[in-house]
Design a protein that fits this description.
Cofactor: Zn(2+)
Structural class: alpha/beta
Number of domains: 2
CATH superfamily of the largest domain: Medium-chain alcohol dehydrogenases, catalytic domain
CATH class of the largest domain: Alpha Beta
Strand content: 25-35%
Number of helices: 11
Keywords: Metal-binding, Oxidoreductase, Zinc
Radius of gyration: 20 Å
Family: Belongs to the zinc-containing alcohol dehydrogenase family.
CATH architecture of the largest domain: Alpha-Beta Complex
EC number: 1.1.1.2
Protein name: alcohol dehydrogenase (NADP(+))
Helix content: 10-25%
Length: 350
């Protein structure tokens, strides 16, 4: 068992809004219930950019982003029962929680009232900053590690640890399935997985995108319909159509207009998190008993459920594999919506 802190290569933002650069970071010794993971691939999530640029509040620097981690177990602590060396595993947005509150006991660790610990940009229970997946390896408690089924390649599985669970959880919660009409706003890193998962769940799926530029992609991914939101006729034609609308975009929307697309009792669920506050006329909710909701990732057990579901249905992310030296370029391309549909870092290049 590794009894000493190790030093590994990583890419970090030295300060807010600064370009990421190659550096080294410490990794804690492998504890009794820890697994040491040799990181093979790490997805680039839009939230990495928000946090590295202080978009969601003051960050902890230097910051090593990355919470879409796929790799191989190379060592386990003596108390570990779930994993062994050689296992294919993943780590998502959380690496710890209080484990005692009502939410943790219910498998909702992401809503831990005692304070969950993020995979990066957080302070662990040891008082040290957490560093994410843009690195060679990571040490994680076995209870916050999930198994990647053999049916999924590690590179295409990495984005599922955030983009997959972030869309799977609300679609399941709000009843996406046969006989239901689901709309996905935005066909990006989150949205493309939302389309795949909603289709696999059996729902009738519509993509609502600013333009028809990605229409062919959307239909190939499983959408039944594709509309441009830049066309005012879209909101007239689709009024009162949907049971569930999943918004994956991180820009403020005209929520009144989108709520008008819901059936009576329908729900507009946000998984994208704009940095700016939104304005809302509550009559757009009151009329039709509609719900404006939010959803944040999912618990560890549900993340495993999602991975098993994706393996069963052959759902990996659509990725563009890059070398670590291209991370800053990738950030700019994400902001320009110029990726189809998730950048994944080859950790061997870190």
């Amino acid at each position: 068992m590794t009894s000493q802190t190790t030093t590994v290569s990583a890419y970090a933002a030295p300060s807010a809004k600064a370009p990421l650069e190659r550096t080294t970071i410490p990794r804690r010794p492998v504890g009794e219930f820890d697994v040491l993971i040799d990181i093979k691939f790490a997805g680039i999530c839009h939230s990495d950019i928000h946090q590295a640029r202080d978009g969601w509040g003051e960050g902890i620097f230097p910051m090593v982003p990355g919470h879409e981690i796929a790799g191989i177990v190379t060592e386990v602590g003596p108390g570990v029962t779930r994993f062994k060396a050689g296992d294919r595993v993943g780590v998502g947005c959380l690496v710890d929680s209080c484990r005692e509150c009502e939410n943790c006991r219910a498998g909702q660790e992401q809503h831990c009232t005692g304070g969950s610990v993020g995979t990066y940009n957080a302070i662990g229970k040891d008082g040290e900053p957490t560093y994410g997946g843009y690195s060679q390896s990571v040490v994680v408690d076995e209870n916050f590690t999930v198994r990647i089924p053999d049916g999924l390649s590690l590179d295409e599985a990495a984005p599922l640890l955030c983009a997959g669970i972030t869309t799977y959880s609300p679609l399941k919660h709000w009843g996406a399935g046969p006989g239901k009409k689901v709309a996905v706003i935005g066909l990006g890193g989150l949205g493309h997985m939302g389309v795949k998962i909603a289709h696999a769940l059996g729902a009738e799926v519509t993509v609502l995108s600013q333009s028809l530029r990605k229409k062919d992609d959307g239909l190939k991914l499983g959408a039944d319909h594709y509309y441009a939101t830049s066309d005012p006729k879209t909101f007239e034609e689709l009024a009162g159509s949907f049971d569930v609308i999943l918004s994956t975009v991180s820009a403020p929307l005209d929520f009144g207009a989108y709520l008008g697309l819901l059936r009576t009792g329908g729900a507009l669920v946000n998984v994208g998190a704009p940095e700016e506050p939104i304005a809302l006329n509550l009559f757009s909710l009151i009329g039709g008993n509609k719900t404006l909701a939010g959803s944040m990732i999912g618990g560890i057990a549900e993340t495993q459920e999602m991975l098993d579901f994706c393996a069963e249905h052959g759902l990996g992310a659509e990725i563009e594999l890059i070398e670590a030296s291209r991370i800053n370029e990738a950030y700019e391309r994400v902001l320009a919506s110029d990726v189809r549909y998730r950048f994944v870092i080859d950790a061997a290049t870190i």
